[in-house]
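Milestone 3.1: sequence recovery, worked example.
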């Protein structure tokens, strides 16, 4: 998973870049794909004529489209990653609280069974039941 310092670095790159959204434009006169923000040129993919001769212009067009889309996609993806991490951390805390509550309830049930007044034969069963309840809380027993 991407750590916080890498996300911070990517956010800084996005903030320093020309504001988006960006779009791709093909300049037929120059034979190249440009990535623009409004009328400002952000990037130019050159050697278009050579690429056209090799039949690679769709690759250049897709590369330009990816560059343009990344301007708004990267910040959105970083925000989604941050939100997912927050949700995961909140779920962990909730699970730890739930586990603690279940353990406390098991212990209370076991203590109640051990302290119950029953016949001598029944007391043995009550102790065994209390041990089974405790064992289930620690992963032991059936």
């Amino acid at each position: 998973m991407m750590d916080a310092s890498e996300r911070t670095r990517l956010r800084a790159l996005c903030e320093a870049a020309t504001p988006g959204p960006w779009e791709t434009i093909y300049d037929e006169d120059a034979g190249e794909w440009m990535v623009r923000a409004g009328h400002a040129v952000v990037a130019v993919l050159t050697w278009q004529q050579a690429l056209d001769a090799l039949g690679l212009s769709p690759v250049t067009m897709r590369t330009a489209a990816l560059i343009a889309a990344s301007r708004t996609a990267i910040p959105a993806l970083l925000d989604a990653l941050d939100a997912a991490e927050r949700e995961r951390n909140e779920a962990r805390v909730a699970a730890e609280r739930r586990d603690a509550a279940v353990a406390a309830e098991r212990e209370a049930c076991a203590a109640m069974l051990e302290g119950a007044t029953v016949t001598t034969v029944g007391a043995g069963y009550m102790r065994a039941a209390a041990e089974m309840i405790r064992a289930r809380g620690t992963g032991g027993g059936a």
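The chain has one domain: 4-137. The chain has four helices and three strands.
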